[in-house]
Amino acid sequence: MGIYFLLGLVAVLAALLVSCGEERPAAAEEEDFEINRRYQRGPVDLRIAISKKEITIAERVKMLIETRVREGYQVNLPGFGEKLEEFGIVDYSTPTPELQEDGVVVARRFYELEPFLSGDYRIPPMTVSFWQEGDTLQHTLQSDTILVRVMSILPQDLSELEIQDITGPVSLPASYRRLLIISAAGVLALALVVFFILRRRRREREVPPLRAHEIAFLRLERLLAEGLIDQKRYGEFTARVADILRFYIEDRFGLMAPERTTEEFIEEAGEGLPVDEKQKGILRDFLIHCDLVKFAALEPSADNVKDTFDTCRDFIDVTKMEEVKEEAA
């Protein structure tokens, strides 16, 4: 009896190990996508899945196009260029089709999409064509429009805060006499100052001061809202983005980026900027390109402008994570 019991136990353990190694069922894959649309016509089943319903302009969204077709039929997935309506296509992959035990062929294509501006993005209807092997007559199956909302980077309560525009350096008082007068007035008003400070502490706790990356993101959004891209003022837009990144670096790392030439700043950043070499290389190429636009009258294209904006936003986003960790510590 003991031998049979041990053999049975081994068999149960082997079955458990096999079941643990099996792939996740298709239904579980849908948990990774907030939007799942299915369409069916004849022998073809079409699925369009989107990872998120709402994202910010600092995020990307994944899209899956999947077809299931009975054996004996062929199907063509829709193709796109570098863009899908308002979305830019960052990357895509097409795994090898799978033949399931029931004779159904499953084909998938994954896309990684990136927004440019905030707003409601519409993924247009997609059409797949299919036909029976040996037959030249083609049929089509079409999806409907899918809506993805791209929101502002900052929370709504912060987006309404006023930030003064970038200004030049402030000069020192003309004489010590004026400084002494101001100091004396400050001493006389000390009681009032203390009173107002205590009164404002509660408000400061409710609305914390903006951090460097929040200020930079807010400036980027306000720059987009000015409509320079729609007016094709690409050179001015590029120069403004460069200024925003330089002031962010000064606020974030304490480097005097706005007052330095690009050569001086690159030399200083090589020693004092706490980012990896890849990020330093991206920053160097970014600043050199912006200098060519600003000083060498290089006329950027619409794609150049998008790349410039994305580089600035991505650099802020990467270094923002480190900033948040430092404050949490």
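(the above was protein one; protein two follows)
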Amino acid sequence: MDEAPLLSEIARGPRGGRGFWCHAADGVRLRLALWPAPAGGRGTVFLFPGRTEYVEKYGLAAADLAAHGYGTFSIDWRGQGLSERLAANPMLGHVAEFAQYQLDVAAMLEAARALELPRPWFLLGHSMGGCIGLRALHREMPVAAAAFSGPMWGIALSPLLRPLAVLLAAAAHALGLGERYAPGTDRTAYVLSAPFEDNLLTTDRQMWDYMAHQLRSHPELILAGPSFDWFNAARRECAALMALPPPRLPALVFLGGNERIVDPRPVHALMRRWEQGRLEVVPGAEHEIMMERPQIRCRFFAAAAQLFASAGACAATAARP
């Protein structure tokens, strides 16, 4: 793997962070980021970002995980961050099928093995990364436990708009317009265009400013609205995942009490069925749990670290001859 840029000055992650280039099986170039586990660490967390996101956004999260003894390995999904953009319009969030993201997961796992990242391994998925991560678990991703924040297991749409959005997306694809912005979205980055007051991401002003500063400093990281094809693919993938039984491993989900980006109903429904799963709804919190107020962030990372430590100990016991 070749070295890739990691914008440490805006990430503010632990020391020793490195970026890498790798390629998925279909040739798409991807960027990976590694913040190594501290000495005597407890393993490695695969951090799956959400739609529009990039590895630097999780520098502070990597610092929180390092404080609990874990290294962080993250990725720019195809079509976003500094990974290869897929659409003629580089600002458009686009994939034809969500199965393409599993090629990225496979490349990430291959890189983790080549780098000999400390085990046990764990998954932490946010929003769309939670959707990709859940599919990866069903494909037997070799992790001991999984934590999610605001997982995209359904897309939030008003009951009145949902049928129209589905119809428009299907028609756009049939007419060869799948690489157009989905209704209600455009080429602007949300944190650079929306006011902080009553925003959909966080109630913490400092974290809002942290995200905005990153994009103002490095506009090459910006990704705007999703395509009709992305919407179609995401809707199909969420429905398919919700029809499956929960994976058989320990899991934790944090969901904002004021969640307005993903549909909370599938999250509640799946966690009621997840035998080794626990759901925590955080009153007053928005979508970005890892970008929320300090007390919420601390609560989330402490709970995730406790889950990982317990699952890691069980995995180590099971591995003994």
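Reviewer note on protein two: Strands lie at 2-4, 18-23, 29-35, 43-48, 70-76, 121-126, 146-149, 251-256, 277-282.
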